[in-house]
Protein backbone atom coordinates (compact mmCIF):
# COMPACT_ATOMS: atom_id res chain seq x y z
CA UNK A 1 0.00 0.00 0.00
CA UNK A 2 2.83 2.40 0.83
CA UNK A 3 4.51 2.04 -2.56
CA UNK A 4 1.18 2.41 -4.38
CA UNK A 5 0.39 5.59 -2.44
CA UNK A 6 3.81 7.09 -3.20
CA UNK A 7 3.34 6.32 -6.88
CA UNK A 8 -0.01 8.14 -6.84
CA UNK A 9 1.61 11.12 -5.10
CA UNK A 10 4.34 11.35 -7.73
CA UNK A 11 1.73 11.19 -10.51
CA UNK A 12 -0.64 13.65 -8.86
CA UNK A 13 -1.85 16.58 -10.97
CA UNK A 14 -1.87 19.61 -8.73
CA UNK A 15 0.24 22.34 -10.32
CA UNK A 16 -2.36 23.35 -12.89
CA UNK A 17 -4.13 24.88 -9.89
CA UNK A 18 -1.76 24.88 -6.91
CA UNK A 19 1.63 26.53 -6.53
CA UNK A 20 4.81 25.19 -4.97
CA UNK A 21 4.86 27.02 -1.67
CA UNK A 22 8.06 28.11 0.06
CA UNK A 23 9.45 27.06 3.40
CA UNK A 24 9.84 30.14 5.58
CA UNK A 25 12.42 30.30 8.37
CA UNK A 26 11.12 31.26 11.81
CA UNK A 27 14.08 33.09 13.35
CA UNK A 28 12.34 34.30 16.53
CA UNK A 29 10.91 30.88 17.29
CA UNK A 30 14.21 29.18 16.43
CA UNK A 31 16.10 31.32 18.95
CA UNK A 32 13.43 30.82 21.62
CA UNK A 33 13.38 27.04 21.30
CA UNK A 34 17.04 26.35 20.36
CA UNK A 35 16.12 24.52 17.17
CA UNK A 36 15.87 25.42 13.50
CA UNK A 37 12.13 25.87 13.04
CA UNK A 38 10.74 26.07 9.51
CA UNK A 39 7.19 26.74 8.34
CA UNK A 40 5.76 25.32 5.10
CA UNK A 41 3.56 28.11 3.74
CA UNK A 42 0.37 26.51 2.42
CA UNK A 43 -1.41 29.75 3.35
CA UNK A 44 0.10 31.11 0.10
CA UNK A 45 -2.01 28.86 -2.14
CA UNK A 46 -4.53 30.65 -4.41
CA UNK A 47 -7.32 29.62 -2.02
CA UNK A 48 -5.14 30.29 1.07
CA UNK A 49 -5.14 26.60 1.99
CA UNK A 50 -3.57 23.27 1.00
CA UNK A 51 -7.00 21.87 0.09
CA UNK A 52 -6.70 22.92 -3.56
CA UNK A 53 -4.13 20.15 -4.06
CA UNK A 54 -6.36 17.21 -3.18
CA UNK A 55 -9.51 18.68 -4.75
CA UNK A 56 -7.84 19.34 -8.10
CA UNK A 57 -6.08 15.96 -8.22
CA UNK A 58 -9.36 14.17 -7.52
CA UNK A 59 -11.13 16.08 -10.28
CA UNK A 60 -8.29 15.37 -12.70
CA UNK A 61 -9.05 11.64 -12.33
CA UNK A 62 -12.75 11.98 -13.26
CA UNK A 63 -14.13 10.79 -16.58
CA UNK A 64 -15.53 13.22 -19.12
CA UNK A 65 -19.00 11.89 -18.34
CA UNK A 66 -18.55 12.63 -14.63
CA UNK A 67 -17.27 16.11 -15.37
CA UNK A 68 -20.22 16.79 -17.63
CA UNK A 69 -22.67 16.04 -14.82
CA UNK A 70 -20.79 18.19 -12.29
CA UNK A 71 -19.29 17.71 -8.84
CA UNK A 72 -20.58 18.29 -5.34
CA UNK A 73 -19.25 18.47 -1.79
CA UNK A 74 -20.57 19.18 1.66
CA UNK A 75 -18.17 21.56 3.34
CA UNK A 76 -18.13 24.74 5.38
CA UNK A 77 -14.40 25.26 5.12
CA UNK A 78 -11.32 25.21 2.96
CA UNK A 79 -12.31 22.13 0.94
CA UNK A 80 -15.28 24.06 -0.42
CA UNK A 81 -13.04 26.82 -1.76
CA UNK A 82 -10.52 24.35 -3.14
CA UNK A 83 -13.15 22.37 -5.02
CA UNK A 84 -14.84 25.54 -6.30
CA UNK A 85 -11.58 26.79 -7.77
CA UNK A 86 -10.63 23.40 -9.23
CA UNK A 87 -14.03 23.10 -10.91
CA UNK A 88 -13.81 26.61 -12.32
CA UNK A 89 -10.38 25.93 -13.84
CA UNK A 90 -11.72 22.76 -15.48
CA UNK A 91 -14.98 24.34 -16.61
CA UNK A 92 -17.02 21.93 -14.48
CA UNK A 93 -20.21 22.76 -12.61
CA UNK A 94 -19.71 22.64 -8.84
CA UNK A 95 -22.31 22.59 -6.07
CA UNK A 96 -21.25 23.14 -2.46
CA UNK A 97 -23.72 22.33 0.32
CA UNK A 98 -22.94 24.33 3.46
CA UNK A 99 -24.67 24.49 6.86
CA UNK A 100 -26.69 27.65 7.37
CA UNK A 101 -24.36 28.66 10.20
CA UNK A 102 -21.39 29.01 7.83
CA UNK A 103 -19.84 32.49 8.19
CA UNK A 104 -20.81 34.76 5.30
CA UNK A 105 -17.18 35.38 4.35
CA UNK A 106 -16.77 31.70 3.48
CA UNK A 107 -20.04 31.55 1.56
CA UNK A 108 -19.04 34.56 -0.53
CA UNK A 109 -15.54 33.15 -1.14
CA UNK A 110 -17.02 29.95 -2.60
CA UNK A 111 -19.50 31.85 -4.76
CA UNK A 112 -16.73 34.15 -6.00
CA UNK A 113 -14.96 31.08 -7.38
CA UNK A 114 -17.96 30.14 -9.47
CA UNK A 115 -19.62 27.42 -7.42
CA UNK A 116 -23.31 27.25 -6.59
CA UNK A 117 -23.85 27.34 -2.82
CA UNK A 118 -26.77 25.52 -1.20
CA UNK A 119 -27.33 26.36 2.48
CA UNK A 120 -28.94 23.47 4.31
CA UNK A 121 -29.27 22.50 7.97
CA UNK A 122 -27.64 23.76 11.14
CA UNK A 123 -24.87 21.16 11.25
CA UNK A 124 -22.50 19.43 8.85
CA UNK A 125 -24.39 16.12 9.05
CA UNK A 126 -27.53 17.74 7.64
CA UNK A 127 -25.56 19.40 4.85
CA UNK A 128 -23.88 16.08 3.98
CA UNK A 129 -27.22 14.27 3.89
CA UNK A 130 -28.66 16.88 1.53
CA UNK A 131 -25.62 16.51 -0.73
CA UNK A 132 -26.39 12.81 -1.07
CA UNK A 133 -29.98 13.67 -2.01
CA UNK A 134 -28.73 15.98 -4.76
CA UNK A 135 -26.36 13.26 -6.02
CA UNK A 136 -29.29 10.85 -6.33
CA UNK A 137 -31.33 13.49 -8.13
CA UNK A 138 -28.74 14.96 -10.51
CA UNK A 139 -25.93 12.40 -10.78
CA UNK A 140 -23.22 14.67 -9.40
CA UNK A 141 -19.88 13.15 -8.40
CA UNK A 142 -19.07 13.62 -4.73
CA UNK A 143 -15.55 14.93 -4.01
CA UNK A 144 -14.73 14.11 -0.38
CA UNK A 145 -12.53 16.40 1.73
CA UNK A 146 -10.13 13.70 2.96
CA UNK A 147 -11.41 10.11 2.68
CA UNK A 148 -10.21 9.36 -0.85
CA UNK A 149 -6.91 8.04 -2.22
CA UNK A 150 -6.68 10.69 -4.97
CA UNK A 151 -7.34 13.49 -2.50
CA UNK A 152 -4.68 11.98 -0.21
CA UNK A 153 -2.21 11.82 -3.10
CA UNK A 154 -2.77 15.48 -3.91
CA UNK A 155 -2.09 16.51 -0.33
CA UNK A 156 1.00 14.30 -0.29
CA UNK A 157 2.72 16.56 -2.82
CA UNK A 158 3.49 18.90 0.10
CA UNK A 159 5.93 16.27 1.41
CA UNK A 160 7.54 15.98 -2.03
CA UNK A 161 8.23 19.71 -1.98
CA UNK A 162 9.57 19.70 1.58
CA UNK A 163 12.12 16.94 0.97
CA UNK A 164 13.24 18.64 -2.24
CA UNK A 165 13.43 22.12 -0.71
CA UNK A 166 15.26 21.01 2.43
CA UNK A 167 17.71 18.23 1.67
CA UNK A 168 19.52 18.40 5.01
CA UNK A 169 18.70 16.47 8.19
CA UNK A 170 15.13 16.81 9.49
CA UNK A 171 14.30 15.60 12.98
CA UNK A 172 10.50 15.80 12.69
CA UNK A 173 7.64 17.12 10.58
CA UNK A 174 4.50 18.25 12.43
CA UNK A 175 1.23 17.89 10.51
CA UNK A 176 -2.27 19.10 11.45
CA UNK A 177 -4.92 16.39 11.61
CA UNK A 178 -8.65 16.63 10.96
CA UNK A 179 -9.93 13.75 8.84
CA UNK A 180 -6.38 12.54 8.11
CA UNK A 181 -5.98 13.17 4.38
CA UNK A 182 -3.01 15.51 4.75
CA UNK A 183 -1.05 13.44 7.24
CA UNK A 184 -1.71 10.20 5.35
CA UNK A 185 -0.29 11.57 2.10
CA UNK A 186 2.67 13.29 3.74
CA UNK A 187 3.51 10.36 6.04
CA UNK A 188 3.48 7.90 3.13
CA UNK A 189 6.00 9.90 1.11
CA UNK A 190 8.24 10.89 4.03
CA UNK A 191 8.47 7.38 5.47
CA UNK A 192 9.07 5.82 2.04
CA UNK A 193 12.03 8.09 1.26
CA UNK A 194 13.29 9.21 4.68
CA UNK A 195 12.04 6.77 7.34
CA UNK A 196 14.32 8.34 9.97
CA UNK A 197 12.22 11.53 9.96
CA UNK A 198 9.58 11.55 12.69
CA UNK A 199 6.03 12.19 11.48
CA UNK A 200 4.01 13.74 14.29
CA UNK A 201 0.31 14.52 14.02
CA UNK A 202 -1.17 17.44 15.90
CA UNK A 203 -4.84 17.60 16.91
CA UNK A 204 -7.02 19.97 18.88
CA UNK A 205 -7.58 18.28 22.23
CA UNK A 206 -11.37 18.47 21.78
CA UNK A 207 -11.34 16.79 18.34
CA UNK A 208 -8.55 14.23 18.69
CA UNK A 209 -10.03 11.50 16.51
CA UNK A 210 -6.67 10.13 15.29
CA UNK A 211 -5.26 9.82 18.80
CA UNK A 212 -8.40 7.94 19.84
CA UNK A 213 -8.21 5.66 16.80
CA UNK A 214 -4.55 4.78 17.37
CA UNK A 215 -5.25 4.04 21.04
CA UNK A 216 -8.18 1.76 20.11
CA UNK A 217 -6.47 0.15 17.11
CA UNK A 218 -9.45 1.10 14.96
CA UNK A 219 -11.44 4.15 13.91
CA UNK A 220 -13.74 5.50 16.58
CA UNK A 221 -16.39 8.22 16.56
CA UNK A 222 -15.97 10.99 19.12
CA UNK A 223 -19.07 11.81 21.18
CA UNK A 224 -18.45 15.55 20.82
CA UNK A 225 -16.16 17.70 18.71
CA UNK A 226 -14.89 21.17 19.58
CA UNK A 227 -15.49 23.89 17.02
CA UNK A 228 -12.80 26.47 17.78
CA UNK A 229 -10.44 25.02 15.15
CA UNK A 230 -13.12 24.52 12.50
CA UNK A 231 -10.70 23.21 9.86
CA UNK A 232 -9.98 20.08 11.93
CA UNK A 233 -13.33 19.64 13.68
CA UNK A 234 -13.86 16.01 12.63
CA UNK A 235 -15.43 13.27 14.76
CA UNK A 236 -13.85 10.28 12.96
CA UNK A 237 -10.63 9.92 11.00
CA UNK A 238 -11.20 8.78 7.41
CA UNK A 239 -11.07 5.11 6.47
CA UNK A 240 -8.61 5.52 3.59
CA UNK A 241 -6.25 7.84 5.49
CA UNK A 242 -6.21 5.60 8.56
CA UNK A 243 -5.41 2.50 6.51
CA UNK A 244 -2.39 4.27 5.01
CA UNK A 245 -0.86 6.00 8.00
CA UNK A 246 -1.83 4.00 11.08
CA UNK A 247 1.66 2.42 11.15
CA UNK A 248 3.53 5.46 9.84
CA UNK A 249 2.77 8.14 12.43
CA UNK A 250 5.32 8.29 15.23
CA UNK A 251 3.24 10.28 17.69
CA UNK A 252 0.13 12.44 18.07
CA UNK A 253 0.17 15.59 20.18
CA UNK A 254 -2.97 17.40 21.31
CA UNK A 255 -3.08 21.13 22.00
CA UNK A 256 -5.50 23.52 23.68
CA UNK A 257 -7.38 26.51 22.32
CA UNK A 258 -4.98 28.85 24.10
CA UNK A 259 -1.94 27.07 22.64
CA UNK A 260 -3.35 27.43 19.12
CA UNK A 261 -3.96 31.14 19.68
CA UNK A 262 -0.37 31.59 20.84
CA UNK A 263 0.85 29.82 17.70
CA UNK A 264 -1.21 32.19 15.51
CA UNK A 265 0.72 35.05 17.08
CA UNK A 266 4.06 33.24 16.64
CA UNK A 267 3.47 32.73 12.92
CA UNK A 268 2.53 36.37 12.51
CA UNK A 269 5.63 37.61 14.31
CA UNK A 270 7.97 35.45 12.20
CA UNK A 271 6.28 35.63 8.79
CA UNK A 272 3.60 38.39 9.02
CA UNK A 273 1.04 35.78 7.92
CA UNK A 274 -2.29 35.61 9.77
CA UNK A 275 -3.01 31.89 10.10
CA UNK A 276 -6.39 30.43 10.91
CA UNK A 277 -6.43 28.49 14.18
CA UNK A 278 -6.21 25.11 12.46
CA UNK A 279 -3.46 26.56 10.27
CA UNK A 280 -1.36 27.22 13.38
CA UNK A 281 -2.19 23.84 14.92
CA UNK A 282 1.00 22.05 13.89
CA UNK A 283 3.23 24.84 15.23
CA UNK A 284 1.44 24.61 18.58
CA UNK A 285 2.25 20.90 18.59
CA UNK A 286 5.86 21.55 17.62
CA UNK A 287 6.31 23.92 20.56
CA UNK A 288 4.75 21.41 22.95
CA UNK A 289 7.03 18.66 21.62
CA UNK A 290 10.14 20.75 22.30
CA UNK A 291 8.95 21.56 25.81
CA UNK A 292 8.14 17.91 26.56
CA UNK A 293 11.27 16.32 25.06
CA UNK A 294 13.90 19.04 25.52
CA UNK A 295 15.18 18.47 21.97
CA UNK A 296 17.83 21.01 20.89
CA UNK A 297 19.81 21.79 17.73
CA UNK A 298 17.46 19.92 15.38
CA UNK A 299 15.48 20.93 12.30
CA UNK A 300 11.73 20.91 12.92
CA UNK A 301 9.16 21.65 10.21
CA UNK A 302 5.48 22.49 10.63
CA UNK A 303 2.71 23.33 8.15
CA UNK A 304 0.78 26.60 8.06
CA UNK A 305 -2.13 24.82 6.47
CA UNK A 306 -4.43 27.79 5.90
CA UNK A 307 -5.25 31.45 6.41
CA UNK A 308 -9.01 31.56 5.94
CA UNK A 309 -9.98 33.24 9.17
CA UNK A 310 -12.65 35.82 9.87
CA UNK A 311 -11.21 39.18 10.88
CA UNK A 312 -13.76 39.24 13.73
CA UNK A 313 -12.06 36.24 15.33
CA UNK A 314 -8.74 38.01 15.80
CA UNK A 315 -9.87 39.84 18.93
CA UNK A 316 -10.75 36.57 20.65
CA UNK A 317 -7.51 34.95 19.45
CA UNK A 318 -5.50 37.88 20.80
CA UNK A 319 -7.24 37.58 24.18
CA UNK A 320 -6.17 33.96 24.53
CA UNK A 321 -2.62 34.33 23.18
CA UNK A 322 -0.84 35.25 26.41
CA UNK A 323 -2.60 32.40 28.20
CA UNK A 324 -1.45 30.02 25.47
CA UNK A 325 2.13 31.13 25.99
CA UNK A 326 1.64 30.78 29.77
CA UNK A 327 2.61 34.45 30.02
CA UNK A 328 -0.55 35.48 31.88
CA UNK A 329 -2.15 34.17 35.05
CA UNK A 330 -5.86 34.77 35.63
CA UNK A 331 -6.58 34.89 39.35
CA UNK A 332 -9.52 35.52 41.65
CA UNK A 333 -8.23 37.17 44.81
CA UNK A 334 -10.21 38.11 47.92
CA UNK A 335 -9.09 41.36 49.60
CA UNK A 336 -10.59 43.30 52.55
CA UNK A 337 -13.25 45.85 51.57
CA UNK A 338 -11.61 48.83 53.24
CA UNK A 339 -9.53 51.88 52.24
CA UNK A 340 -5.95 51.08 51.24
CA UNK A 341 -6.58 47.41 50.39
CA UNK A 342 -6.10 47.86 46.64
CA UNK A 343 -2.80 49.71 47.16
CA UNK A 344 -1.55 47.00 49.53
CA UNK A 345 -2.50 44.30 47.02
CA UNK A 346 -0.57 46.05 44.24
CA UNK A 347 2.50 46.31 46.50
CA UNK A 348 2.29 42.56 47.09
CA UNK A 349 2.16 41.90 43.34
CA UNK A 350 5.28 44.05 42.98
CA UNK A 351 6.59 45.31 39.63
CA UNK A 352 4.77 42.72 37.54
CA UNK A 353 2.54 43.98 34.73
CA UNK A 354 -1.15 43.77 35.63
CA UNK A 355 -2.89 42.86 32.35
CA UNK A 356 -6.47 43.06 33.61
CA UNK A 357 -8.30 44.14 36.74
CA UNK A 358 -12.07 43.82 37.30
CA UNK A 359 -13.81 44.78 40.50
CA UNK A 360 -17.20 46.01 41.68
CA UNK A 361 -18.36 46.62 45.26
CA UNK A 362 -20.60 43.78 46.43
CA UNK A 363 -19.90 43.04 50.10
CA UNK A 364 -19.07 45.32 53.05
CA UNK A 365 -16.45 42.89 54.39
CA UNK A 366 -14.60 41.39 51.41
CA UNK A 367 -13.96 42.22 47.75
CA UNK A 368 -13.42 39.58 45.08
CA UNK A 369 -11.14 40.92 42.36
CA UNK A 370 -10.55 39.38 38.92
CA UNK A 371 -6.94 40.07 37.98
CA UNK A 372 -4.61 39.18 35.13
CA UNK A 373 -0.88 39.17 35.92
CA UNK A 374 2.00 38.84 33.48
CA UNK A 375 4.22 35.85 34.32
CA UNK A 376 7.08 33.92 32.76
CA UNK A 377 6.25 30.83 30.64
CA UNK A 378 6.41 27.39 32.19
CA UNK A 379 4.03 27.53 35.15
CA UNK A 380 6.59 27.93 37.95
CA UNK A 381 6.40 31.73 37.95
CA UNK A 382 2.59 31.62 38.04
CA UNK A 383 2.72 29.38 41.10
CA UNK A 384 5.23 31.79 42.62
CA UNK A 385 2.73 34.66 42.30
CA UNK A 386 0.00 32.55 43.89
CA UNK A 387 2.28 31.49 46.76
CA UNK A 388 3.32 35.10 47.39
CA UNK A 389 -0.30 36.24 47.59
CA UNK A 390 -1.25 33.35 49.87
CA UNK A 391 1.71 34.10 52.15
CA UNK A 392 0.43 37.68 52.41
CA UNK A 393 -2.92 36.34 53.64
CA UNK A 394 -4.96 36.64 50.43
CA UNK A 395 -7.31 33.75 49.46
CA UNK A 396 -6.53 32.95 45.79
CA UNK A 397 -8.37 30.90 43.16
CA UNK A 398 -6.37 30.13 39.99
CA UNK A 399 -8.72 30.64 37.01
CA UNK A 400 -6.08 30.43 34.25
CA UNK A 401 -7.54 27.16 32.89
CA UNK A 402 -11.18 27.98 33.67
CA UNK A 403 -13.18 28.32 30.41
CA UNK A 404 -16.10 30.07 32.10
CA UNK A 405 -13.76 32.70 33.49
CA UNK A 406 -11.97 33.27 30.19
CA UNK A 407 -15.01 33.28 27.93
CA UNK A 408 -17.53 35.12 30.10
CA UNK A 409 -16.64 36.23 33.63
CA UNK A 410 -13.81 38.54 32.54
CA UNK A 411 -16.41 40.47 30.51
CA UNK A 412 -19.05 40.49 33.24
CA UNK A 413 -17.76 42.70 36.03
CA UNK A 414 -20.32 43.17 38.84
CA UNK A 415 -23.95 42.33 38.24
CA UNK A 416 -24.70 40.46 41.46
CA UNK A 417 -28.36 40.04 42.43
CA UNK A 418 -29.54 42.13 45.40
CA UNK A 419 -30.99 39.10 47.16
CA UNK A 420 -30.17 35.41 47.15
CA UNK A 421 -32.01 33.05 44.83
CA UNK A 422 -31.30 29.65 43.37
CA UNK A 423 -30.33 29.44 39.71
CA UNK A 424 -28.94 26.86 37.34
CA UNK A 425 -26.03 28.14 35.24
CA UNK A 426 -25.00 26.56 31.94
CA UNK A 427 -22.58 27.40 29.17
CA UNK A 428 -23.75 26.75 25.58
CA UNK A 429 -22.52 26.80 21.99
CA UNK A 430 -25.25 28.37 19.86
CA UNK A 431 -25.12 28.12 16.05
CA UNK A 432 -24.47 31.59 14.61
CA UNK A 433 -27.68 31.99 12.61
CA UNK A 434 -30.93 33.92 12.90
CA UNK A 435 -33.42 32.14 15.12
CA UNK A 436 -30.90 30.24 17.25
CA UNK A 437 -31.84 32.13 20.41
CA UNK A 438 -35.57 31.83 19.74
CA UNK A 439 -35.15 28.09 19.19
CA UNK A 440 -33.46 27.88 22.59
CA UNK A 441 -36.13 29.91 24.38
CA UNK A 442 -39.08 28.08 22.86
CA UNK A 443 -37.75 24.76 24.20
CA UNK A 444 -37.69 26.07 27.78
CA UNK A 445 -40.79 25.70 29.97
CA UNK A 446 -42.72 28.94 30.34
CA UNK A 447 -42.28 29.00 34.12
CA UNK A 448 -38.46 29.15 33.87
CA UNK A 449 -36.98 32.63 34.31
CA UNK A 450 -33.77 33.74 32.55
CA UNK A 451 -31.69 35.38 35.31
CA UNK A 452 -28.35 35.73 33.49
CA UNK A 453 -27.41 35.91 29.81
CA UNK A 454 -24.05 36.71 28.23
CA UNK A 455 -23.07 36.31 24.57
CA UNK A 456 -20.09 37.45 22.52
CA UNK A 457 -19.62 37.08 18.77
CA UNK A 458 -16.28 35.45 18.02
CA UNK A 459 -16.58 35.47 14.23
CA UNK A 460 -17.05 31.71 14.18
CA UNK A 461 -19.82 29.30 13.22
CA UNK A 462 -20.84 28.93 16.87
CA UNK A 463 -21.36 31.58 19.55
CA UNK A 464 -20.48 31.09 23.20
CA UNK A 465 -23.40 31.79 25.52
CA UNK A 466 -23.71 31.80 29.32
CA UNK A 467 -27.24 31.40 30.70
CA UNK A 468 -28.56 31.49 34.26
CA UNK A 469 -32.09 30.18 34.88
CA UNK A 470 -34.42 30.17 37.84
CA UNK A 471 -35.94 26.70 37.66
CA UNK A 472 -38.86 25.48 39.81
CA UNK A 473 -37.81 22.75 42.23
CA UNK A 474 -39.91 20.14 40.44
CA UNK A 475 -37.94 20.67 37.21
CA UNK A 476 -34.42 20.80 38.63
CA UNK A 477 -33.70 17.11 38.04
CA UNK A 478 -34.86 17.33 34.43
CA UNK A 479 -33.11 20.50 33.26
CA UNK A 480 -30.69 18.78 30.90
CA UNK A 481 -33.46 16.74 29.28
CA UNK A 482 -34.81 20.00 27.84
CA UNK A 483 -31.35 21.03 26.62
CA UNK A 484 -30.75 17.70 24.89
CA UNK A 485 -33.91 18.22 22.82
CA UNK A 486 -32.53 21.55 21.56
CA UNK A 487 -29.35 19.93 20.23
CA UNK A 488 -26.83 22.59 21.32
CA UNK A 489 -23.67 21.56 23.17
CA UNK A 490 -23.75 22.56 26.83
CA UNK A 491 -21.74 22.43 30.07
CA UNK A 492 -23.09 22.83 33.60
CA UNK A 493 -21.34 25.69 35.44
CA UNK A 494 -23.49 26.06 38.57
CA UNK A 495 -20.61 24.85 40.75
CA UNK A 496 -17.87 26.78 38.94
CA UNK A 497 -15.67 28.75 41.35
CA UNK A 498 -15.52 31.76 39.01
CA UNK A 499 -19.31 32.01 38.96
CA UNK A 500 -19.60 31.84 42.75
CA UNK A 501 -16.86 34.42 43.28
CA UNK A 502 -18.10 37.02 40.83
CA UNK A 503 -21.73 36.42 39.84
CA UNK A 504 -23.64 34.47 42.48
UniProtKB/TrEMBL annotation:
This is L-threonine dehydratase. The gene is ilvA. The lineage of its organism: Bacteria, Pseudomonadati, Pseudomonadota, Gammaproteobacteria, Oceanospirillales. Catalyzes the anaerobic formation of alpha-ketobutyrate and ammonia from threonine in a two-step reaction. The first step involved a dehydration of threonine and a production of enamine intermediates (aminocrotonate), which tautomerizes to its imine form (iminobutyrate). Both intermediates are unstable and short-lived. The second step is the nonenzymatic hydrolysis of the enamine/imine intermediates to form 2-ketobutyrate and free ammonia. In the low water environment of the cell, the second step is accelerated by RidA. InterPro entries: ACT-like_dom_sf, Ser/Thr_Dehydratase, Ser/Thr_deHydtase_PyrdxlP-BS, TD_ACT-like, TD_ACT-like_sf, Thr_deHydtase_biosynth, TrpB-like_PALP, TrpB-like_PALP_sf. It comes from Halomonas korlensis. It catalyses: L-threonine = 2-oxobutanoate + NH4(+). SUPFAM superfamilies: ACT-like (SSF55021), Tryptophan synthase beta subunit-like PLP-dependent enzymes (SSF53686). Belongs to the serine/threonine dehydratase family. Its EC number is 4.3.1.19.
